[in-house]
């Protein structure tokens, strides 16, 4: 199912939820510890909301300017993974990047990242040096009947890329987890493919 572009990264897992793609990539970010240490010093603000009706329940985030993102090695890996979603008619361009942090007791809500006809992509990195299965923190993806279609657990340097119209939610860590759950999101909009 991955596009035949030789520069595209191969996914370790691929699913389709209601006709919309979701792919998981593992083992492409060897320096994940550098990102985790940087995030431990970052200035997070409680400004992010899942949906307008949950605006009273904000969660922690820190923004990354697109100009800075384009200079980061993590973006080159992400770009190569996104190539597998492009074709002769359309490509993708980043328009927003930010990191969320969640801890035990935080409340996160289901949401979508774009309207159904936009076909934007969300690239979500799990930035942790280790993660225990018992810590929870999965990202749950739902089908059109609000049934769980897929759960992706955090793993060091794991990347999941999905159509932003798939309803999803990041679950906060369980009580026994004292590590922050960092997820670095890069949002991509679909644009016409370059000609030539």
TrEMBL record:
Keywords: Dioxygenase, Oxidoreductase. Residues 20-189 form the Prolyl 4-hydroxylase alpha subunit domain. Pfam families: 2OG-FeII_Oxy_3. Its cofactor is L-ascorbate. InterPro entries: Pro_4_hyd_alph (IPR006620), Pro_4_hyd_alph_FE2OG_OXY (IPR044862). This is Prolyl 4-hydroxylase alpha subunit domain-containing protein. It comes from Lysobacter panacisoli.
